[in-house]
């Protein structure tokens, strides 16, 4: 008899829960319950993967499906929380859509922290960090991460610089300043400077000359180029994070 492939292929749903997971029953309500019951049409006995950004990823099975709530039986830990490369992405907030894409890619590419940095030419100076955190969570659910990048409050560039040392909990963090007017090639600079790092990306209009001069004078900053073309800010962010991850050996 000819084998009939199951189609469409059904992958195990994977969800973030915001509290520490342990073996035993777990009741979900609200959007996660709606997603499993209504969107994924989960049935009793179906497997679900869960992660909590604390202990790692767990396997659970659906034990009860109600209209508004769903009970899972959490059974075994599949893997511990991943080690997260110590990279912050400090990026000027962009218009909705573009900044959502940036958050999604930052999570997929492995950053530890997303920091919206308001510069003089930033158009969106009050980014919706709740929405951005939701994108980080969704991306982590989709790409298999067991750690969610932390979402920092928006900070103005002068405050970021003023508080840089106190934010580092000891130790130094190199700031790779993506400068569209030129700098040292990013990959070589990142390989030469291992350790905790941050990447600074400007807004659609770039940095102004005074900001550029202030950043370049910081002892922990390295001005880097991402090549001869002017990239959109979100492209520059994804390219710079990819280069850093490659230099750090994460890839
Ligand atoms: N308005 C600026 C101009 O026309 O020169 C372009 C700004 S660009 C769209 C936004 C940000 O992406 C820049 O501030 C920089 O951080 C980064 N970026 C874009 N292309 C880059 C490159 N080739 N090298 C380094 N950084 C770049």
Walkthrough of the structure:
The chain is α/β, with parallel strands linked by helices. The protein folds into 2 domains: 14-79, Hypothetical PUA domain-like, domain 1 (Ribosomal Protein L25, Chain P, Beta Barrel), CATH 2.40.240; 87-248, Alpha/beta knot (3-Layer(aba) Sandwich), CATH 3.40.1280.10. The chain contains 7 helices and 13 strands. Strands 6, 7, 8, 9, 10, 11, 12 and 13 form an 8-stranded parallel β-sheet that branches. Helix 2 links the parallel strand 6 (87-91) and strand 7. The structure holds S-adenosylmethionine (SAM).
Short recap of the structure:
The chain is α/β, with parallel strands linked by helices. The protein has 7 helices and 13 strands.
Task: Show the helix and strand layout.
Layout: E1 14-16, E2 24-29, H1 30-39, E3 47-51, E4 57-65, E5 69-79, E6 87-91, H2 98-109, E7 113-118, H3 129-143, E8 150-151, E9 155-156, H4 157-162, E10 174-178, E11 184-185, H5 186-192, E12 197-201, H6 209-216, E13 221-225, H7 233-248
Parallel strand pairs: 1-3, 6-7, 6-12, 7-8, 7-9, 10-12, 10-13, 11-13
Antiparallel strand pairs: 2-5, 3-4, 4-5
Supply database-style keywords.
251 residues, alpha/beta, 2 domains, binds S-adenosylmethionine, Ribosomal Protein L25, Chain P, 8-stranded parallel β-sheet, 5-stranded mixed β-sheet
């Amino acid at each position: 008899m000819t084998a009939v492939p199951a189609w469409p292929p059904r992958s195990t749903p994977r969800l973030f829960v915001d509290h520490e997971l342990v073996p035993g029953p777990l009741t979900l309500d609200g959007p996660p319950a709606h997603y499993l019951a209504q969107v994924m049409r989960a049935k009793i006995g179906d497997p679900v993967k869960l992660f909590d950004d604390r202990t790692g990823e767990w396997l659970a099975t659906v034990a009860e499906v109600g209209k508004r709530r769903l009970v899972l039986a959490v059974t075994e830990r599949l893997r511990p929380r991943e080690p997260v490369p110590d990279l912050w992405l400090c990026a000027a907030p962009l218009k909705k859509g573009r900044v959502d894409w940036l958050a999604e890619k930052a999570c997929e590419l492995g950053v530890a922290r997303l920091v919206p940095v308001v510069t003089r030419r930033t158009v969106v100076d009050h980014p919706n960090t709740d929405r951005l955190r939701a994108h980080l969570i969704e991306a982590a659910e989709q790409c298999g991460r067991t750690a969610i990048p932390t979402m920092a409050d928006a900070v103005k560039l002068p405050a970021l610089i003023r508080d840089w040392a106190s934010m580092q909990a000891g130790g130094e963090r190199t700031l790779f300043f993506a400068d569209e007017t030129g700098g040292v090639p990013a990959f070589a600079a990142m390989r030469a400077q291992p350790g905790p790092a941050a990447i600074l990306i400007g807004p659609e209009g770039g940095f102004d000359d005074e900001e550029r001069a202030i950043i370049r004078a910081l002892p922990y900053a390295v001005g880097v180029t991402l090549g001869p073309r002017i990239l959109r800010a979100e492209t520059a962010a994804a390219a710079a994070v990819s280069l850093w991850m490659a230099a750090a050996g994460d890839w």
